[in-house]
Amino acid sequence: MKKRLLIVASFFILILPRASADEGMWLVNLLDKQLFELMKSKGLELKPGEIYNPEGIALTDAIVAIDGGGCSGSIISPNGLMITNHHCAYGDIHSLSTQENNYLENGFWAMNMSDEKPIKGKSVTFLRGVSDVTDLVNKIIDSLDAAGPRGLFFMNKVSGVIEKKYESNPYEKSLSSMWRGTKYYLYFYETYSDVRLVGAPPVSVGAFGGETDNWGWPQHKGDFAIYRVYSGADGKPAQYSAENKPLVAKRYLSVSSKGVKENDFTMILGYPGRTNRYMSSFELREKFEILNPVISGVRRSKLEVWKKYMDASQELRLKYSDKYFGVSNYTDYAKWENLCIDRFDVIDVLESREAKLAAWISAKPERVAKYGSVLSNLKTAYDVKAEITRIREYFRESMVRGAEFVGLGQRFSGLISALSRAKIEEFTLEDELIKNFNEIALKTFESTDFEADKELLKVMLRYFVKEVPQSFYDDAFVNLLAKFEGNTDKLADYVYDNSVITSKSRLENFFSQKRTPKDIEADPIIDIVKTTGIRNYNRLEDSLLKAVNIDPGTQRTAYVKAMYEMQSETSNNIYPDANSTMRLTFGEIGGIKAKDAVYYHYQTTTKGIQEKINPNDYEFRVKANYESALKAADWGRWGQNGTLYVNFMSDNDITGGNSGSAVMNAKGELIGLAFDGNRESMAGDVYFVEGYCKSVSVDIRYVLWVIEKYAGATHLLKEMDIK
Asked: What is the pTM of this model?
């Protein structure tokens, strides 16, 4: 347990600035002396200033957040090469792919800079500094509180005041809260928006094993892709231009070809998204009993519909692959998270923690006055809203996040009120509102198959009418349902066969003449859309909570602050939840005793790929030239004793957002890219289970072999500093 606390505490090192409030300095000194000593004892060969140095250049200057968060990456050449996961690049590769040039299936490699593909909307963000502004933020909050009641965007106002005080600083500013407002840090960022795709293996390499292996071990994924960051001629961020130059990197990571062995020191720098290590047992029980079962059940049904059509047509596989990929990942996560919550008795663990919290609160009258009712209030709130939470989640998954033409129907319905506000009684395709909607509709026709989406609606309607009481239905939907005697399949057929927005030709005909808002309202899809509003669900929850006079958000904040205060008094090893700011975690290479009589080695090899290859299973199908390369076993300088290693495991503490993060050795050299967790770790966002929570990474030697021996993109290796 001691090892676990120290390891995850290291997640907090990079939040703290070098010079700030006294308490911040004290924490920094503590981390420098204790955690860095521990890191050194595990093998670290760097000094603190070589990892993060606000007054100089350090490893953190090579680490980026991609698209503002969601994935991490690292700069690996002086000319702005950036590496991340293939699954982080999946959407970009998909967007560039056509039936004629299917980069998703065949891979993409730019053999010179002129071939690199600009990605619209792509960005990478560098951390340029951090400042502890807790005292200043609290003064601003007190000042604004004195001026009147807090509104919906209260913290936006606080951020605005903070940013104005730092307006002389040339970088972007972002105010982040830790422990639900116990601490505040201002982050300074620099974002580059000219980012171009350089190389990516085919999906059969990058996502080998697909859903079958997802969150599992052993894995054999070549989960990497390479971009290049460009700047203006002055080296500063600039919008895309053919005249832009490759970024001259302040710092880039050296690449190690030495490989890894058991108990080697590892550290990961990246931008983890969200953890909930301060979640109450009441909130976790809601997730375990309601949210996860609904999500995994409904989304799996959605995926089954898509998979049926994808397996039948290469055209539809390309059309739906990015959507499928986006939905499937969390669908599996919800399932495995519940299995781990149950296996490791996580709810019981949190209840035990809350028993200690209750005893700590009751020990002093001032604590009782401040936190005495928090636990009972949380229990009451979650008990009161349990049923409406379940109903609303079924509604969201089936109707809001269900069929795509229903989503388009919501936009179609929105035109009615938009036209009314604009006082437009008649409209044509020339009107700006209509023109914008038509462009969205045309994109929907391109990305959505009519038959697949109609079948999806049928499946989603079955969930909706079974799990959501009729009291939540709009009258129009009730009448439509009655028209077909409750047969939702016939209802879906009628709507999709008659709506103007489910057919390109019908929509063109509809907009070929003057129309009125009543013409929109007469469309049958509107009768479905009218029942997709969420206000009735929220109103009922609000009324239930108002009846017991409890605001769950306020109580959650009080709970986290109480936990923070208690842990501050009893332990030095306290750390905030991940919140998409840069973090560091360190650990060791090692395998796992997954369950009784089952031990997994910490490395996989190309032999495992060959054992799994199955030409009759899309997830395990590979290109003929790739299979030939494996059989040739020409590993070059990337092999070790005649073996090429593919993936490895370590006990670093990561979560979503860490995808693509640089995994480094004791010298700060790149040895791999984090891309997954193991199925035994799926409760890790709430509770880190020592010995079971692992980070799964692609070995950088396998990446380099794919680049050199399979893709022949040797020019990229020449840019890198390979040790």
From this structure: 0.92
